[in-house]
Amino acid sequence: MSADSVKRPDMSVRIAGVCFKNPVMTASGTFGSGMEYGEFVDLNRLGAVVTKGVANVPWPGNPTPRVAEVYGGMLNAIGLQNPGIDVFIERDLAFLKQFDTKVIVNVCGRTEEDYLEVVERLRDQPVDMLEINVSCPNVKEGAIAFGQKPDALFSITEKIKKAAAQPVIMKLTPNVTDIAEMARAAEAGGADALSLINTITGMKIDIEKRRFVLANKTGGMSGPAIKPIAVRMVWQASQAVKIPVIGMGGIASWEDAVEFMLAGASAVAVGAMNFNNPCLTAEVAEGIENYLIRHRISSVSELTGAVADA
Questions:
Q1: Which domain holds residue 257?
Q2: Rounded to two decimals, what is the model's pTM?
Q3: Which residues touch 4 (CB under 8 Å, ≥6 apart)?
Q4: pLDDT value at position 139?
């Protein structure tokens, strides 16, 4: 049966009261604010654009080299380089307002005050949701990431939720012992949704030069190699909380995206593989729709958590 001869499925999803035309987003840090990809992909076809991390002041990022290719993906130690909230509002948000897609702003900071300043600046801006990057090093706690201690995660979530005008997504780091515990801490703090996983800490050494490949020594591993870990963590988090989960980590095809949704994700985000195929986000959305048609599934939301026990 051809796709044109059946009723098209409902591709929309609702997360924390926000309705997305489809469940496919971009992962923060891999898509800029869409300007770099405009000639390759129609942003109107995406459920949402998730921006690169935005801080209260410009961040220069880490010294170079800060990107390295590895088996099954890449390492990056960009260091959340960004122009700061002022330039972001004037340039990036102005660009994104042209498109019929939801806008999710990723927020980063080194202290709770940094995060809160950005959140408050965005209160009256045309932003649909906030995604809070708690993988940032907390300078007041010995550079331990906000998302690596349940009490710190609870505290920053609670404070951001009180200050925010938009629904809050807490983006969880996988560099923890118990992802379910962190998910519950964010939910208890008032998070409206979770997104995971962020990158996994990795390292590469040049054996001929006997030197670290990255100037920062370590970097965040992303790409297809981390997908099984990400799927497992998304499943664990979705089992632990009642709020929606947005899954990401190594998505390279629509099949990968469906796997995340079956594991419990309400939506998905495509990250590192945008560098390999700038059109991938739109292709993933189309592939999911065709999958629904073939399986005669009327709504994409029916996929969420639908994996059967073995």
A1: 3-303
A2: 0.95
A3: none
A4: 64
